[in-house]
Write a structure and sequence with these properties.
Blueprint lengths: L7 H21 L17 E2 L3 E6 L19 E5 L2 H11 L13 E7 L9 E10 L2 E9 L15 E7 L8 E7 L5 E8 L1
Length: 194
Amino acid sequence: MHLETRPPQKTTLLLSIICICIALVSIATPGCGGEAAPDGDESAGIEIPLQTLAQDVTSEYGRIDEIPVPEDTPPECVAISDEEEFQRLVSLSYFQEPIGYVDFDKYIVIAAMQGPKSTGGYAISIMHAFQSGSEVRVEVELVEPEPGSMTVQVLTSPYHLVLAERSAFDPRGELVFTFVDQEDNRISQQPTEV
């Protein structure tokens, strides 16, 4: 009795084709591979794509309206729609890395500044932005060291700046940006012209 076997190249090719087909079906299937609203909540609105402009833990940032900033001050989150306001933020922050040019005809900047901290272990990240009508919800993740944990004794001031294309917002005009943390606590709210 003689069993017919396929050459290894044909078997590998067949397996590769099957894997590609499975991957394509999973991407094309609704709910797979796309960005959904948090917890599948469609009422959260349309997700606005974000692109990191700068993120680090070292800056000399003080609040725009109050310098110097007490350490227990909550984070400051702002949506910036013009060059003058952006340059003011940059001049107050002394960012560790150079901040590139922003074309404010095409983009707005969303910034989250955690403020001065006396130890390491802190971080801030803008995770998502969702628009529903004239409301924009910006989700910010705040990281703090666990109480009693070992941390490096160094002054930090974490920040995250992202770009959002103006064309991604619908409708445009004066929008209200509401910033919330990962536990859905409101950090701040501000109107911004988009």
